[in-house]
Fold each of these.
Amino acid sequence: MPVFGHDALHALTRAVCIAGGSAAREAELVADNLVAANLAGHDSHGVGMLPLYVRCLHNRSLLPNRHAELALDRGPILVIEGGRGYGQVIGFEAMQLGLARAAEQGVALVAIRNSFHLCRIGHWAEQCAAEGFASIHFVNGVDHAPLQAPYGGRDARLSTNPFCAAVPGEDGAHVVLDMATSEIAFGKARVAANKGEPVPDESLLHPEGHVSRDGAVMFQDPRGAMIAMGEHKGSGLAIMCELLAGAFTGGLTNQPEHPQKGGTINNMLSVIIAPDALGERDAVRREIGAALAWIKSARPRAGFEEVLVPGEPERRHRAARLAHGIEIDPQSWSEIRAAANAAGVADRDIDRLFG
Ligand code: NAD
């Protein structure tokens, strides 16, 4: 499998964004976010998103150079209008505002509506954790045909609605639970289809209603549907993400009467909690450390080598990929190159970056 350096992928992403009309700072934030997702092991949300982003720039469902606009500012509550701007800018600026407000008030409730793809939600939780704040995020996705079937259904009614919660850890070892509420993230069906590999069992439904292990069922017409993780519990969490992020923020939910531009709009409801809002800072930190040590001390059961806590797999991927590079399968790479060309980045400029 071809291996790419993170610096060159970062430079390519910047070049694509700038060719698509972005200011330099925006291009930098998008590149930071996509490459960080690859480094964390989530290729579903890395530079492989560029074909979607370029398509959406062209159909104007994604608008460059937008910023987080405050639609409501009341005590700990901030409502942010994303204006179909890059989620990498809207998410970053919204978290900055939310962190400042939580520092003042102890807690901030940040509602983002109508942002383009917020991508890997753990990125926003990590921005909060890096400042010592805990956070909880409910997200829904609209503007495209739904992807995920509710428990017991065979028709898609929801997006893959991610949920994320994080608490800061020692020396950057934050505990970050960040997951699609579907059994697999949508991008993982794309990556599996591109690699010609089967998806995990019980993760996709064929349009005729039976379980399929072929990621391609999500890219055909009629399309299949994604199965919720954890049966009724994951499906219930997906529905709560839909209602909290899609309706309570003043954004939109997946309903047939809402017009769709074929983009990926995310709405997100976030709670950001200051480290000393509820308990004494050092005591909280000690309690977290002791709880994690106890959890990790469980003896591994058959088939497992050790107990990991959320966020550990991503940290291990990051260390390995920083050292050894990021693998991208040939099909995904040719789609990324085609997207770069479509944005206006010539082949010779791409070749120069990857020397
Ligand atoms: P995943 O299944 O790989 O990981 C889910 C969580 O489980 C992570 O917090 C991870 O640290 C933890 N984990 C993984 N293996 C573990 C182990 N062995 N022991 C303990 N914990 C473990 O993630 P996913 O559901 O495929 O989601 C991938 C990404 O997709 C996420 O970053 C999510 O934010 C993103 N996403 C975004 C959208 C969007 O609309 N923007 C939609 C869906 C998903």
Amino acid sequence: MQDYTVTLNTAVAIAREAGALLMDGFGRTISFETKSSAVDFVTEYDKSAEKLITKRLTSAFPAHNLVGEEGASKNGDSDYCWYIDPLDGTNNFAHGLPVFCVSLALYKNNQPQIGIIYQPVLDECFTAITGQGAYLERGGKRTRLAVSTTASLTQSLIATGFPYDHQTSAHNNVAQLGAMLRQVQGIRRAGSAALDLAYVAAGRHDGYWEFKLHSWDVAAGVLLVQEAGGLVTHVDGTPYQIAPRLALIASNKRIHDAIQTTLATVAIPDS
Ligand code: IPD
Ligand code: CA
Ligand code: CA
């Protein structure tokens, strides 16, 4: 088995540095531009954090490929690829809501090797190496993560999110939300897919689903969930495989079928 310790430590330092950059901007009046829709925007901090991460990763791992939300891209011969979400939870960040993170993942031949999710407001750093478990480092203490043991939807706290075309598309997760709400203890919409997954790994959420995700939203969080004993599949139940666009269910395993069955009661419109 490959020893990823040095790679992980290097990437954690980069994620922490990017987190500090975000904290410099957090709470200030910030400028932003819209992207795919009127509610999808990018701030100067998304861009500067991605620049910093890309610069540091390229210098530490010059051969590795990169895919970043704000345009970072390198597609050479390497088997390795970093997936970068420099600021997951941009809407929260821009509104001064302290729920956002940096998400970094390393894949080898499309298989997750390392996942890092750093929440700078709480100084919570979630990490995983394939085959070696998932951990949370907070206040100098490192604890191993395990998914919850909740066995029924009625007792479950489930997370989800809505796509940036929610104002215009019929496929905006509202019907699924209605179906799920009738089955569960509670639903949360934190505004950060990466944190939603980290919280499934930590047993804070029992499950999570979302449509129209991007690779960088979930690349790290999926490994955290898997290494904490959970399960991640596409919404049709097939095993997780990284792709540019994704619709996923993540859970503590026990309630996975129930989430899938509940979502399947709702027909998904084409657009
Ligand atoms: C978004 C967040 C949100 C999810 C969206 C993502 P961003 O990422 O993760 O929770 O619902 O699908 O695009 O734009 O804040 O990096
Ligand atoms: Ca994101
Ligand atoms: Ca982002």
